[in-house]
Amino acid sequence: MPKRTDIKKIMLIGSGPIVIGQACEFDYSGTQALKVLAEEGYEVVLVNSNPATIMTDPQMATRTYIEPLTVGSLTRIIEIERPDALLATMGGQTSLNMAVELANAGVLEKYGIELIGCDLHAIETGEDRRLFAEAIAEIGLECARSGYAYSIADAESLAVELGFPVVLRPSYTLGGAGSGIASNMDELREIVSQGLTLSRAGEVLVEENVIGWKEIEIEAMRDRKGNSIIICSIENVDAMGVHTGDSITVAPAMTLTKLEYQRITAASHAIMKKIGVNGSGSNIQFAINPENGRMIVIEMNPRVSRSSALASKATGFPIAKIATKLAVGYSLDEIKNDITGATFACFEPTIDYVVVKYPRFTFEKFKGTETVLGTRMKAVGEVMAIGRTFEEALGKSIRSLETGRAGLGADGKDEFEEESFWQWVSLPTENRLFYVAEALRRGFSVESIYQASGIDPWFLYRIDDIVSMQESLRDTNLHELGQSKLFAAKRMGLSDAQIAYLTGNDEYQVRAYRQAQRVTPVFKLVDTCAAEFTSKTNYFYKTYEVGASELRLGNKPRAIILGAGPNRIGQGIEFDYCCVHAAYALTDIGYETIMINCNPETVSTDYDTSDSLFFEPLTYEDVMDVIEVVNPEGVLVTLGGQTPLKLAQSLVQAGVPIMGTQPDAIDLAEDRERFAAMMDEMNIDYPPSATAASVEEAYAVAQRLGFPLLVRPSYVLGGRGMVIAYNQQYLSNYITEAARVTPDHPVYLDHFLESAIEVDVDALCDGHRVYIGGILEHIEEAGIHSGDSSCCLPPFSLSDAILENIADITRRLTLAVGVRGLVNVQFAIKDTQVFVLEVNPRASRTVPFTAKASGVPLAKCAAMIMAGATLDQLGLPIETRIPEFYNVKEAVMPFGRFPGADIILGPEMKSTGEVMGIGQNYPIAYAKAALSIDYSLPMSGVVFITVNDKDKRAVLALANNLVHLGFSIISTEGTANTLKAAGIPVTPVRKIQEESPNIADEIAAGRVQMMINTPLGQETRGDGFRLRTHAVRHGLCYATTLAGANAMVRAIEVAQRDARGSGELMPIALQDLDQWEGLERLNKVEQYDQQSLPL
Amino acid sequence: MTDLEVKASQSEEIDEVVSKMAILMLEDGSCFVGISKGIDGEALGEICFNTVMIGYPEVISDPSNAGQVVVITYPQVGNYGVALADVESEQIALRALVAREICETPSNYRSDMSLPEWLVEQGVVAIDGIDTRELTQLIRDRGSLRAIVSTIDSDPESLLAKVLAAPSIDRENLVASVSTKQPYLFSMNEEHRSWYQTIAEPRYKVIVIDLGVTRSILNSLSRLGAAVIVLPWDASAEEILAYQPDGVVFSSGPGDPRVLTSTITTCSDLLGKTALLGIGLGHQVMALAVGGGIIKMKAGHRGVNYPVKDIAADRVNITEQNHGFTVDFKSLGLLERPRKRVQTVANDSCGRIQLTETNLNDGTVEALLYLDIPAVSVQYQPQISIADNTTNAFNRFATMMKKGEPEDAPAAILTGDTKDSESENA
Under an 8 A CB cutoff, do A458 and B53 touch? Predict the structure, then answer.
């Protein structure tokens, strides 16, 4: 069955912004799909609202639309492009949902578009709980047994049938409210009676309890002929009850007998056939009762997923790529396995190593939210580690996380809550495994920990082995360890840092001793076949083995690119984008590129992004181990965000050549004293600031600088723990409680420029000249983390004089710092005065957005500059050209996932992703960006306004606009009085803490469509907090800054006009914008003179 | 020698535990040092690797591995212990087991004992702590080699001398060592009976010639609706026919089929007289019985992920395999109408033989259908399939046996074999 020739043009829908549960794995799958479709000669129309993706690079598709993923917007694109087919299995649930909505709206039928890769019926059966359970029953399998109760009596009889304990879930309640587990009739009656009241449908699902069962996932594929293959089995270390995205998982499954495994794989084949997967990948989840082996089907997803990205990286089998080929008509037996180059894709990968995936959380950003893990995913990212044993891979995975841990405990960072110790062993939280290890260390039995945690004894035995190894090293003399002991420790996955802690040395001493003892790692290949066939792909992992390395290196000069590690808030896909661009650029100009990264979701860890891929943690030890065998010309540290930057200094000290901006320049920009001195010398303004090492010093500084103050601890980066203090009281609370200031850990205090406009500049510098890539004007005022505020390129409210001033300062500073590559400068414009906030001599979060908006691939250019190219050689377009369109970037917040955490924006970043809108003017661009975010902009209805005293005057114009747009306004007393006085019609409403009916009831009843609530300073746990939390729970459209609210209202105005036929929101393809074509020409330059490398 | 000592000392996992050293020596002088995980002693055999990830007890107890030193490529072996109900034969036939790490603290509700306990109980020499990936590459590149694993001799010179002095297993009759001595009636064990939900009354009488038969084959035949009588490898055609069987199965087993002269003769005598099914070694025996030839493969096929193409149905099934020899299709007769997609040869003794399935990757013979006599044979380990897949070897065999009884689909879906069913999507 060769590829289809009856279709020519295929539409692909991406997954939109990075949100929890849908991260850059869909950039990986989408990018693979686009490559395949281009190779096969199809025209591709791509729609995705996320500019920070490789897939939305204009050369990846025939037509690229960075537009909202809504039926309206997609229909318009379909009208313009008239695709023959729609591939919706590459963009996660978002893409699948859009396909269903387009079909239901009759759009697919109207334009004769065929859904390829998956059919509607399959999607429906996969998602509808009842349909799925029926289908599963028809093929002789079981789902968790359940039934719906409409009365307590119903529930009682169901419980008798199912047997206690039962899980009770009221239907249609938000955030799983009213759910619970009942172990007896009394508990059942209590939970059900409450649940029936809570449920709008008066309905409670009574389900058998499978919490604590083994959770197994299968990644499989099935083609149109009916060939179906299992790619990978994944076993969850955390038992049923924890979302698989939040679970530590292992591939392949470890604790199943062949008989059990055969039953699972047979069921997988049968389910794919029954549901109708004909030309796609699929993920199927099972629960196994560890006491008797009973098997339950949990769910299946007929599309590529986070797990399939993991399975692809774990086995080397590129699921998304193959799935795309299947979607266009190929069968599995026609596709070559490109890892071996010799065998076919129609086989089941077998591996000779163990893979551990470990989730990454950022609960510290969302104070007040529940940190116990459950069935709703909360992880913001993940890492993967490969080792020859589970023990080795587990150790690697923990140090990959960049949570400051060097392994599973024994690193001097262990802190345990003694009074509730056993509770933390049993409850699933991000730190549970450390408690488990400690419990074993304290001599608790595997059996007792298994009973408490539900973690299979096999994993506990392995952890016990790790702990025993740790304890055998504790307080020993490093230099008496000897080769065999050290080798054994490394084989158990212990890091040099752990061994250093246990033996009372530092990591460097351990490394030196280890090397003297000839205990060095080897590099083995990931080859899909356990070495049965030779493999030509350079995908490596590090391990401690007796045998030899399989490393193969070419003759070209080598460049190592250090990746960005796990996604977390503040460090996301944007940096992976930059690393991938560097790999492409350096390969083009003749380097052998080597990627080191540990994030399985990314494009950078696709084995064909670089010449060699090392799937390793980004720690000094692991990176140095690679560097020592690869012997690179240079290492790129400024593209992967903070992760590689943190390593720069120690790499230099080890004599490693760094390409591009040197660590000393980075240090100059980051050392506040050195930097301030430099700016003073250059007559550049910056907000007055000082350091305080005690509470008294802080008061003195406050006195001198005046409130408000921007306060931050010295030892964290990325805005962690940063606050704005408006008064002495707040400052003293913060300093004594939150920051715990000591002479070793001083706090920084900056005078905060209230109501200033913040500006970001992304620029390139070759050491001689500076190229301004883009100037971005923030919409929210200064004080909101730049990652969380929306911004516009080009600026919409700044004068030419100010812009010239900004550009001039950027040039002078960049040259003075000594940047070679990318630089990001942040400014605050107070009245007309330009202040420099900071200079980051590295790739910034806004680089992909700026590149998309300007048409200049900044990250690629930066890599070339780092390799020795000059800006003159690159021949970039002039900087002062006025873009034809306005481009708005808006941040996407994860608050819906963290009930209980406040949603106000501040100096600490909280967003997970971003969207982009492109339009003829700023409001249109903003409207498109707003429509790209999950919540919909209301077109009419009621707006609830309550603002702080500072904003009372400014809110009048806004309220007036809303009234003109046809909205009615409700307000609490203070704001209502202001509006009334200005003659704006307003209905008063009671505050949330006042008696019912109050604003909370209005929101709950769905009578409010939008909320504008501006808090003052860091008020916490007050009315405002409760109000905002309530609004998030009900999915309300909201703004917490007046600037944001104004932008939103102007966007509503645009959307209203567009709905009346103005056509303002017409989609725009990137290919129709100015794109700089120069790189084509540059790529043909064979190679730069190595002498000019700035080493 | 110092290198060896270095390797040895590296392999001692924890100082306090006194681990017993073991050495693996190959005939090319490659030497690997590890830890003993079985009995004390030494064992000589031909080294091969198996890429199974889940299913080590089945591989270790498969009589087809008689004479072999088996390397498991998956690094952590023994994780779920050993469920005795699942073992393929009562006595482990492989010579020695080689692994990266053998687990002493397994976990599974079905486990009866740990893998090291089982190996000791069965008297098997085993070694772990080996870089099995490097070893596998060596075997892949150099082909089958003679090897010795010893826990009692640590002198490499002496070990190498022993390996070089050992006869090639090719000339050994390994089948005789694993085949049953007495005829017996097979009965599925209780655990598997409940697992497979097998309740159907037998409809066929099947004789299995035990060349190293596995429990899986016997279970499959039972589930097919057969009363299974197992006879020794050297049973004569008269003895077999005296049972008045509906069909005869030549089972899988170890080694070179060419040494099985009496079995080959028996098979010749049975051609056309009853329905025949050959599996693995039995498939090769049938090819020899009709005058065909056998080729020794460089590294063999040993694992659970081999794609096999059913040429007529245009479908691929992923199969389990364990063989080091393969049938030379061209040796079976003259090719008829060579342009046809499905190739057929004319054989002097049994008429037309069709090549119905081949290995997707290397094109080796995977299944033969004898068009003019009731006989079918497969190189891989066939799995029972539900109802309507007529190209499945077991189903073809069942069709060839006497018909007339009411259709009583033997396998429920939970038994694990729903995979290669109908091809309505083709």
Answer: no
Distance CA B52, CA A976 (A): 73
Classify residue A1059 by its DSSP letter: I
> Measured between alpha carbons, how far is B251 from A1021 in angstroms, rounded to an integer?
75
Token pair 């399975």: residue: A311
CA-based end-to-end distance of chain A:
53
Q: How far apart are the first and last CA of chain B?
A: 61
Cβ atoms A411, A403 nearer than 8 A: no
- Nearest by CB to B318, which of A139, A348, A529? A348
For A422-466, the pLDDT digits (tens) are 999 999 999 999 999 999 999 999 999 999 999 999 999 999 999
Q: What is the pLDDT of residues A135-182, one digit of tens each?
A: 999 999 999 988 889 999 999 999 999 988 898 888 766 556 677 888
Name the minimum distance, in Å, from the CA of A89 to any CA of chain B: 20
Order of all β-strands in the sheet with A723-725: A689-692, A747-751, A709-713, A723-725
- Please give the model's pTM, rounded to 2 decimal places: 0.93
Model confidence pLDDT, tens digit, residues A215-242 = 999 999 999 999 999 999 999 999 998 9
Contact B140 A534 (CB under 8 A): yes
Residues A444 and A435 sit within 8 Å (Cβ to Cβ): no
Angular region, B363: left φ>0, alpha ψ -120 to 50, beta rest: left
From CA B303, how far away is CA B72, in angstroms rounded?
Answer: 9
- Taking the C-alpha atoms of residue A878 and residue B198, their distance in angstroms, rounded to an integer, is 79
Let me know if B145 is exposed, middle or buried by CB neighbors in 10 A (0-12, 13-18, 19+): middle
- Core vs surface per residue A655-664: b (16+ CB within 10 A) or e: ebbbbbbbbe
Q: Which of residues 88-147 of B touch A (CB under 8 A)?
A: 100-101, 103, 105-111, 129-137, 140
CB count within 10 Å of CB A754 equals 15
Burial class (CB in 10 A: 0-12, 13-18, 19+), A115: buried
d(CA B366, CA B355): 8
Task: Please count the other Cβ atoms lying within 10 Å of the Cβ belonging to residue B313.
Answer: 19
Chain A interface, best mutation among B13, B52, B53, by max A CB count within 10 A: B53
